[in-house]
Design goal:
This protein is about 70% helix and about 0% strand. The protein has about 240 residues and is mainly α.
Length: about 240
C-alpha cells in the first residue's frame, strides 16, 4: 500500500496548480456571491472533482480544467451515475444517524451528532465504497457483494492512509482557525478566505488517498480473465 500512497502524493503535487484553482472556485465564489445553498454547491463541486480523481486512478487520466484527453479504453465522461452513487453513500449514514438520534429522549450535542455521522459514513464507505469506481468504470461486471467481501481490507487501508492524514490536517486546520479567531481576525476577511482556500487544497490530499484505496480495492474485485481472453476483455482498468 505504500506504493499507492506514494503515487497518490505524487499525483497531488503534480495536480496542485489545478487543485488551487478548484479551491479558489469552491471557496471564493460563495464568499463573493453568498448563495443560499452554499453547502450543496460545494458537495456537487467536490463530487465532480472526485470523479476526475477516480478516472486518474482507473485510467491514468491527468487532471485538467478543460480539454483533458480521454484515456484509451476509458468510457466517456458521465457524471450522473457517479453523482447518484455518491448521494446514496451520503444519505445512508444521514438516515442511520437520524434514526439513532430519534432513540434518545434528549437531543445529543451537535458534536456527538457529527461524530456519529462520520462513523456511519466511514462504515458505509468501507462496505460500499467500491461502487464509486465501478460507477466510473461502468464495465458491467461489478456486484455489491464483491465490495462487501473486501470491506475489512478496505477499512484498514482507509484508516492507515486517508484517515490518519485527514486527522492530522483537521487538527492543524482547527488550531489555525482558532488561533486567527483568538487574534481577532474577522471571519469574512481575506486572511480567513486564504486560510479556507489552503484548507480546501490540503483537504484534497486525503480524498485522493481514499480514491486511490477504493480504486485499488475495486481492481482486486475484478473477475480473473478467462482462458484465451486478455486483461482488456475483463476490465477497463490498466494492469
Amino acid at each position: 500500500m505504500r506504493k499507492i500512497y506514494r503515487e497518490s502524493f505524487g499525483y497531488f503535487l503534480s495536480s496542485l496548480p489545478v487543485l488551487l484553482i478548484f479551491a479558489f472556485i469552491i471557496e471564493a465564489l460563495p464568499w463573493v456571491l453568498q448563495p443560499r445553498s452554499e453547502a450543496l454547491i460545494s458537495v456537487v463541486a467536490l463530487t465532480i472533482i472526485a470523479y476526475y480523481f477516480h478516472r486518474h486512478f482507473l485510467f491514468e487520466e491527468k487532471l485538467a480544467l478543460r480539454n483533458a484527453p480521454i484515456a484509451k479504453g476509458a468510457p466517456p465522461l458521465k457524471f450522473g451515475w457517479f453523482l447518484s452513487v455518491t448521494a446514496a453513500l451520503i444519505l445512508v449514514p444521514v438516515a442511520a444517524t437520524f434514526i439513532v438520534v430519534l432513540q434518545y429522549s434528549d437531543m445529543p450535542a451537535p458534536g456527538l451528532i457529527v461524530i456519529m455521522f462520520f462513523l456511519a459514513y466511514f462504515l458505509t464507505l468501507c462496505l460500499f465504497g467500491t461502487a464509486l469506481p465501478a460507477a466510473v468504470a461502468r464495465d458491467g461486471t461489478f456486484r455489491l457483494s464483491q465490495g462487501l467481501r473486501a470491506g475489512f481490507q478496505t477499512m484498514w487501508r482507509l484508516v492507515a492512509g486517508p484517515g490518519l492524514v485527514g486527522a492530522v490536517l483537521f487538527a492543524v486546520i482547527l488550531a489555525s482557525t482558532l488561533g486567527l479567531q483568538a487574534a481577532g481576525v474577522p471571519e469574512d476577511s481575506l486572511i480567513m478566505l486564504g486560510l479556507f482556500m489552503l484548507m480546501r487544497t490540503l483537504g484534497f490530499l486525503p480524498t485522493i488517498f481514499a480514491v486511490a484505496v477504493l480504486c485499488e480495492m475495486y481492481r482486486k474485485t475484478r473477475p480473473a480473465p478467462r482462458l484465451g481472453q486478455g486483461a482488456e476483455g475483463s476490465d477497463h482498468t490498466p494492469a
